[in-house]
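Appendix B, Record 12. Input sequence as logged:
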Amino acid sequence: MSKLEQVLILDPPADLKFKGPFTDVVTTNLKLKNPSDRRVCFKVKTTAPRRYCVRPNSGVIEPGATVTISVMLQPFDYDPNEKSKHKFMVQTIFAPANVTDMDALWKDAKPDDLMDSKLRCVFELPSENDKVNDVEDIKATPVLNSAKSDGPLSSMAAAKPSGGAPDDPEMKRVMTECKRLQNEMSKMAEENMKLKDDGVRMRKAARSDHMTSNSSALLGRESSSSSTTSLPSLLVVIAAIFIGFFLGKFIL
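Logged structural output:
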């Protein structure tokens, strides 16, 4: 018995494209459409389960319904010369009536009842034109937002630049952050002035202590020299008194 053809319609049908840069999580979508009149169970598998996060990775699609699968590529060091060997497979089976245990359904499924589709992963870096278009879109978005207004003031609102809108939450946040930075700079300037004043006072105090110590040393030297000089003078006076005393006795 030949293998059943895939009943679901996949979009994209063959390649899952991931556009860098790959320094952050990159997400691409896979749509599964059930064109049949029966419920279909699906399961998404990959050859690199540690590199991808798939939500949802399994489930049931009602007749005529479409399910969007988010495939999230985790950050990694991209090498342009290395070709991706990662692949995905969408496996499906018609859901039996009153199915409750999905694990048991897949475990007991017969190979002839399974349908599958394979997709390969393609990594792309943004071109220079894409980068320019992204920048232009970012610049144009605030202008478009400012032009959306109701009533007779719509033309005036559109004429105002988006960066000057006082009610813009982003602008308020930026202004608040600027004020906080200005306050911090003012505080730092005040602390710097205080440190300079403290340094000047410390230098003056050191200078004063040095002059006081020099004056004390000079006074000590002068007092010692004066005491040394007064000692011989006292001896001369005493000797003169004794000589006068003896001379007076002899004369009398």
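Residues 169-251 form the longest helix (83 residues).
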